[in-house]
UniProtKB/TrEMBL annotation:
Segments passing through the bilayer: none
Domain PucR C-terminal helix-turn-helix stretches: 427-484
Ranges for domain Purine catabolism PurC-like: 9-123
InterPro entries per UniProt: CdaR-like_regulators (IPR051448), PucR_C-HTH_dom (IPR025736), PucR_C-HTH_sf (IPR042070), PucR_dom (IPR012914)
PANTHER family named among the record's database cross-references: CARBOHYDRATE DIACID REGULATOR, DNA-BINDING TRANSCRIPTIONAL ACTIVATOR ADER
Source organism superkingdom: Bacteria
Pfam families hit by this protein: HTH_30 (PF13556), PucR (PF07905)
Protein's UniProt name: Purine catabolism regulatory protein
């Protein structure tokens, strides 16, 4: 802790006497500066204890002199008596008391150099203590990082070392760890400060606390936030920087390890697709401790790459919690393979993606194809989740993408629409009715309110315009599909 005026006065060997500003003796002394200048403020940084013998005292009103020193951030004034003045001028004492500005009397036996040495010694001790505290704290943080892979342990250790609170945020500002748990309440205010772009390079003030925000990793994939209701000091800031470096290193190592494991996951899933179940499952059990017994359910997650990356992080946790869950990246989608004992509850923890779920199966290739079709249909329909059984229950139309289906219908029915648009008949409506009644002339004609021979003429004209044989079952199926689209 820095030396204060009160601690300096308490050193009896100096014989200092407080004449004014006793209530402000808690001020810290940054340095000592002897001066006889009437206006020394241009040479000051603030926080100094000025020492003077009063050679220029009386050149101006004492009140102006004191106000100028106070405005410059001077901690206090020591007035040496016995040289130019036998006692501190009463006007100076009155002005200092009125301004609540600390004024000390320095007796004749005490040279100014003795005060300078006392302050210098205290500052050196303080800096040494900070170095020791920093060194010990860095050792504790390093040991914690080596013993515990989980970042929460490092966050808790740092919070104790700086006597404050710590948050670990992901790239999106969500809280990953909080120490203590009550620190989560600061997350909203911290994210608001991050949004201003001011945090991350130095100290900021949030809700009255002194706060440091450090970006983590080479791509700012997270943030270390440390706060205290007092001040950190140099040692505290060094410890925060050390924790940030350790966390960043761990994140880069995890990222490199994750890249390797993602490649292994993809390779294992491709083995499953190729029917090499026994080999793939053997490696899964040894490398990941995963054992998804068949029959399996496959879930395909499709959407933007950023959301797939976030989902992969969630699935890492899910796979750690449930040993019958395996996931992999394949063909720009995420695939999740779950055993019969697992459900799809993990989908609720994933945002921004569309999910397709296969029926239970022992054939990974079939399950993947079905789940992929359901996921694609879910994306077209704007649904977060679609089961293949529900998707297939929509009939042939449900298996076609809307753009593909519309293009097909335009190509097949285009000539007929052009004919009807010119007001030369309602051939499309007649064709639909005829197909609905399986080509039965009398029933179709009665439904349309025309003679059956008129309907025959219309169908013959439709066949000529379309260039199709309406007696062909395949042609009838295509026309029916196009009309429904």
């Amino acid at each position: 802790m820095a030396l204060t005026l009160e601690a300096l006065v308490a050193q009896r060997s100096l014989g200092l006497r407080v004449l004014a500003g006793r209530a402000e003796l808690g001020r810290e002394i940054a340095w000592v500066h002897p001066t006889e200048l009437a206006d020394p403020t241009v040479f000051l940084d603030g926080g100094e204890l000025l020492l003077t013998t009063g050679l220029t005292s009386g050149a101006e009103p004492a009140g102006d002199y004191v106000r100028r020193l106070a405005a410059a951030g001077v901690t206090g004034l020591g007035f040496g008596v016995g040289l130019s003045h036998d006692a501190v001028p009463p006007g100076l004492v009155a002005a200092a008391e009125a301004a609540a500005f600390p004024l000390l009397e320095v007796p004749p036996p005490t040279p100014f150099i003795a005060i300078t040495k006392a302050v210098s010694s205290a500052l050196a001790e303080e800096r040494y203590a900070e170095v020791v505290r920093t060194g010990k704290g860095q050792q504790e943080l390093t040991r914690t990082a080596l013993r515990h892979r989980a970042p929460g342990a490092l966050a808790r250790k740092l919070a104790r070392l700086v006597d404050g609170w710590v948050l670990l945020l992901d790239g999106g500002g969500s809280v990953r760890e909080a120490a203590p748990a009550s620190a989560r309440a600061m997350a909203t205010a911290v994210n608001a400060e991050l949004g201003t772009g001011k945090a991350g390079t130095g100290l900021v003030s949030i809700a009255g606390d002194e706060v440091v925000v450090q970006a983590l990793g080479t791509r700012a994939s997270g943030f270390l936030v440390a706060g205290t209701s007092t001040t950190f000091g140099a040692a505290g800031r060094h410890l925060i920087a050390t924790a940030a470096a350790l966390l960043s290193l761990a994140m880069e190592q995890d990222r490199a390890r994750g890249t390797t494991l993602r490649g292994l996951r993809t390779g294992l899933f491709e083995l499953l697709l190729a029917g090499q179940d026994e080999l793939a499952l053997t490696v899964l059990r040894s490398a990941f401790g995963t054992n998804p017994d068949p029959p399996w359910t496959l879930t395909v997650l499709t959407g933007p790459a950023k959301d797939r990356a976030a989902a992969a992080d969630v699935l890492e946790t899910v796979a750690d919690e449930d040993q019958s869950v395996f996931f992999a990246e394949h063909s720009s989608v995420l695939v999740v393979l779950t055993g019969e004992r697992s459900g799809q509850a993990f989908i609720e923890r994933i945002a921004g993606l569309h999910a397709g779920v296969s029926p239970s199966t022992t054939d990974v290739a079939t399950g993947f194809r079905q789940a992929r079709q359901a996921a694609d249909a879910a994306m077209v329909a704007g649904k977060p989740l679609l089961h293949f059984t529900e998707h297939a229950g929509n009939g042939v139309l449900g298996l076609l993408g809307s753009d593909t289906a519309v293009a097909f219908a335009d190509a097949v029915l285009g000539p007929l629409r052009e004919h009807d648009a010119e007001g030369r008949g309602a051939l499309a409506d007649s064709l639909r009715c005829w197909l609905e009644h399986n080509g039965h002339w009398d029933t179709s004609a009665a439904r349309l309110g025309i003679h059956r021979h008129t309907l025959r003429n219309r169908m013959a004209k439709t066949a000529r315009i379309l260039g199709r044989d309406l007696d062909s079952p395949g042609v009838r199926a295509e026309l029916w599909l196009a009309l429904n689209v």
